[in-house]
Amino acid sequence: MLLYSFVSYYIKMTRKEFDISIYHIIFEDLRKYQNLIETFLNTQKKELEENIIEVKVNEKLNDSEKYEKYLNLIGTESYEKFEKYHDIARLFPHNFRVSFLTQVISIIERELKKLCNDLGTIQRQTFTVADLKGTNDFLKCKEYLKKITNIDFNSINAEWEYILQCKSLRNNLVHADNVIKMDNKKLINFIKNNDSIDYEHEEFIDKKEDIMTFVIVNSKLIDELINKSQKLFENLLILKYNS
């Protein structure tokens, strides 16, 4: 009976409403997964803070400030407790967010290529996104949309640019282990203006290759990525059904 009701509900929907609902499900599932893991990690951190006298800190401090307090435990008898806190409060959450950021970017790329090719099919195009030159799927999708539609990218620029910067960040995390050369000014500025990221500038004596290292310290970055991506796809659907 439940299955029948579910099928009946979707039969009554228009194709456009169905597609919007699919994107809602995709991005809502990502939100639920992120919230589940983030809640678990935060619970573990709070339990540690409450049960270890040496690491009790002012609750008014933010996570980065708390972490600085724990750094003072290095070299003391409480080092093992610091190490455990480092894992639970800093390392494991960062590793999860890196992995999850990679997953979200991959899903966005997959769905964007699918949407572009659906538009091409509707318009009876003889080429697909894969036929375009280049290795950056996002840029290839943008070029494809410019070729087959009259889309004004200014109307979706905020969403598009945020996704591109998140992808650049993902690429750096995967290929350079969260180390960025200071001459990568666009990504450096994105990091400096994002309160999800704790960064440190390391200046080398020879001045040849100053770098920045960084850690993702909360979920806001990916929250924003998911929200902007859903908005982007909903706007692109208007193109699909006006074609």
Overall mean pLDDT stands at 83
Order of helices and strands: HHHHHHEHEEH
Query: Biggest sheet, in brief?
Result: 3 strands, antiparallel
Rg result? 22 Å
Fraction of helical residues = 55-70%
Helix-strand makeup class: mainly alpha
Shape: elongated
Q: N- to C-terminal separation?
A: 37 Å
Q: Give me the number of helical elements.
A: 8
Low-confidence stretches: none
Strand content: 5-15%
Strand order of the largest sheet: 1-3-2
Number of domains: 1
Count all strands and give the number: 3
Q: Would you give an account of this structure?
A:
With 243 residues, the chain is mainly α. Helix content is 67%, strand content 6%. The radius of gyration is 22 Å and the shape is elongated. The protein has one domain. Helix 2 packs antiparallel against helix 8 (220-242).
List the helices and strands and how they pair.
Layout: H1 2-11, H2 15-51, H3 63-71, H4 79-122, H5 137-148, H6 157-176, E1 179-181, H7 185-192, E2 197-202, E3 211-216, H8 220-242
Antiparallel strand pairs: 1-3, 2-3
Q: Briefly, what is this?
A:
With 243 residues, the chain is mostly helical. It has helices spanning 2-11, 15-51, 63-71, 79-122, 137-148, 157-176, 185-192, 220-242, and strands spanning 179-181, 197-202, 211-216. The radius of gyration is 22 Å and the shape is elongated.
